[in-house]
């Protein structure tokens, strides 16, 4: 008897809900993955084809515990982030030289002249890029 009552209640609910559908056009959201981030020793540029950036392009703001926080579709830094870069090493700004030697001390020659968010927009990092590589100096995150 309980089964019949449950089935009757379910059938009534289904019949009543059939009229609750509102006609109209609905949008759907489709997302496509971008794959794995490029495996680069000093990070990668924030624009396609996401080539590896040379040593000295990204300042220490872009690394947490030695790991690059990403750029472009793989950016995973905090909201409102702007970190220092040396855009003289950017091919979009005419850089055509070789990559710096990999044996150089980390960040030994970095000279910030711009701040960018993780999507390539120029802005203010909220602090000066000078002196970031002095022992014990830490950029804001």
Write up what this structure looks like:
- This protein is low in regular secondary structure and 141 residues long.
- It contains one helix and five strands, in the order H-E-E-E-E-E.
- The chain has one domain.
- A three-stranded antiparallel sheet has the order 3-4-5, with no helix packed on it. The chain has a two-stranded antiparallel sheet with strand order 1-2.
- Strand 4 and strand 5 (122-123) form a beta hairpin.
Detail the topology: elements first, then pairings.
Elements: H1 2-17, E1 63-64, E2 67-68, E3 83-85, E4 114-116, E5 122-123
Antiparallel strand pairs: 1-2, 3-4, 4-5
Give the terminus-to-terminus CA distance: 66 Å
Q: How many individual β-strands? A: 5
- What structural class do helix, strand and pairing data support? little secondary structure
**Uncertain stretches:** 26-31, 100-108, 133-141
Question: How much is the radius of gyration in Å?
Answer: 26 Å
Count of structural domains: 1
Q: Number of helix segments?
A: 1
In N-to-C order, the SSE pattern is HEEEEE
Helix content: 10-25%
Mean pLDDT: 72
Beta-strand proportion: 5-15%
Strand order of the largest sheet: 3-4-5
Could you give a short account of the major beta sheet?
A: 3 strands, antiparallel
